[in-house]
Amino acid sequence: FTGKGxxxxxxxSGVAPVSDIAVNLVKGPDLSFEARFRAFRTxxxxxxxxxxxxxxxxxxxxxVPGTYANDTTTFLGMAPDAxxxxxxxxxxxxxxxxxxxxxxxxxxxxxxxxxxxxxxVINLSxxxxxxxxxxxxxxxxxxxxxxxKGIFVVAATGNAGFADKKTGSMMSPAxxxxxxxxxxxxxxxxxxxKDDTVPPFSSSGNVQRRPDITAPGTHIVSLRVRGSxxxxxxxxxxxxxxxxxxxxxxxxxxxxVSG
Length: 259
Fold this sequence. Notes:
alpha/beta; globular; two-stranded antiparallel sheet; 20% strand; single chain; 11 strands
């Protein structure tokens, strides 16, 4: 239940070291536009990947293994003992080309069993506008190859909001019925499920394809990267502490499901 022995691949903007928080991290390749700069290589200058990492497998260094279920005082992600494999594709502005994500998925497939990584899940909190039918979409094709190798692919539906029931608004590759698409839910600050809602930003599906599940995706507290692009622009509303930050989106919902 804690993810021990399981590898989760995070294809995102890298993971930055954050004080007081331990992540069982394996640094994969840096395929981003920043890879040529040694100081930025594998580091998260955008702030998105680190936030996802904390949700998936973050763990306070003060947390005690075996007591997670009753621990209400230290920071814990969904799977605190999982091995997180970070493959960086996005730069300081979050910019990434589809070909970089495809290359990252291919790397994960090829190296899924290296050094005991045992990668069983890919988290894709990134996507692109779905302009082609999913049957000819290259990003979907790459993700399906991972699925065929026994890797569970979790994809965020996107933050384009509700849309016409015929056209939908889901990103690629989430709009493929062969993958697992995650939309966001808003708990409305209660533990009761009966008042949960789907926030307006969460991308909807269409008559052919709907999200497979909703998961918590509003005001999710996770790891903060001080000085990152997101921290600089949203710190006044999102900052919780020196190490923690609050964010909303189907990205966060996908990370919850991956964990």
